[in-house]
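#structure-requests
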Amino acid sequence: MNIRDINKEAWDRLVERKNRWTRPVTPEEIAQAGKGKWGLLLTPTKPVPAEWYPELRGLPVLCLASGGGQQGPILAAAGAVVTVFDNSPKQLEQDRLVARRDGLKLTTVEGDMKDLSCFADESFGFIFHPCSNCFCDTIRPVWKEAFRVLKHGGTMVSGFANPLIYLFDPALEKQNVLQLRYKMPFSDRDSLTPDERERYYPGEPLCFGHTLEDQIAGQTDAGFHIIGLYEDDWGGNQPLDQHIRGFMATRALKP
C-alpha cells in the first residue's frame, strides 16, 4: 500500500468534490490581503494570532503540505515570496488558478512532506504548515526537514490533531456517543479493515493519529524551540467539542 499515492488520488478527488480545504480564496479576499487585512487557519476554526507572523514583505515562505488555493495566495498577496509544497497536483492547481486570476507570483512544487530535498538548507524565513501531517504515516522526518530548510531566526507555525480524536467508534460517534474503541498508534491503514474504511470514510485520504510526543517533542528534538501554542475544535459541531478541544497549533523558532 503506497500511502503517498493513495492520498494524492484521494485529495485530487476532494478537489473535484469541492471539499472545504480545496476551495480557493476569492478575489475580494486577495484584495483585502493586499491592504493588510487578512487571517489564516492552521486548525479548523481559530485564526492564527497576528503576532505569530513575521514581517512578510519580501520574505521567502514555504507553505508546507498546504495546497488548495488558500494560504499560499493570501501570503503572496501580503507580500511574501511564496512556495506552496503539496502532494496533490489538483490542490496545487488551485494555487496556480488564484495566482493567474489575481496576478500573484508564487511557486508550486509537488512532493512528499517528509522529503524536502529539492530545497537547499536555510531556504525559507517562515514555514506555514496547516493541519496536514495526519495524512503522513511518520512525522519526525517532517520536523527534521522543516528545521533544515528554515533559516536561523525563522519560525514555523503548525496545526495538528490531538491523537485522542482517532480513538472513538466512528459509527457510535455519528450518534453522539463517544465510545473508546481504538488505541494508539492509530492509522486508517492498520486499525481499520478495508470494509470499515469504505464504510466510514469512502474516498477519503488515509489518516494517522500521531502521539503528542511525536508532534511536540518531535519538533524540539529536531532543534526547534516552541514559543507559542493554542487549542481549537470543530466549532461545536462534533460530539467531542463538548468535552475537549481536539486540535492544537504551535509556533516554533529555529534559534
